[in-house]
Amino acid sequence: MTAYAIAHLREAAPHPEIAEYIARITATFEPYGGRFLVHGDPHEVKEGAWPGHVVVIGFPSISDARAWWDSEAYQAIAPLRARHIEGDIILVPGVSADYDAAVTARKMLQALPPSR
């Protein structure tokens, strides 16, 4: 099942190490079937606040995403970004093609205590 690495990165001043990180990152995730789905393009905030940029990398599975994150190749370049850009990064599995939110809602309602 598809999985994603999602980053919410704050604004940062341009720096040569950031450019090096961007130039090298694709080679770190391609061996794990990763590809950019979103890479810093402008986004529309509909609720709340989301300063900075969004990056989404898709992987064939959560194990592929974890293997990329833990890889020697990625860990070697991660400090180039981390030294200059604050942010939050998560790995999250996607839902199956037959996922039905209505089923999730029914299970949620069934788990509620009986109303009085």
UniProtKB/TrEMBL annotation:
Organism in which the protein naturally occurs: Streptomyces incarnatus
Annotated protein name in UniProt: DUF1330 domain-containing protein
Pfam families, alphabetized: DUF1330
Gene3D superfamilies: 3.30.70.100
Residue ranges of domain DUF1330 in the record: 2-95
InterPro entries reported in the protein's UniProt record: Dimeric_a/b-barrel, DUF1330
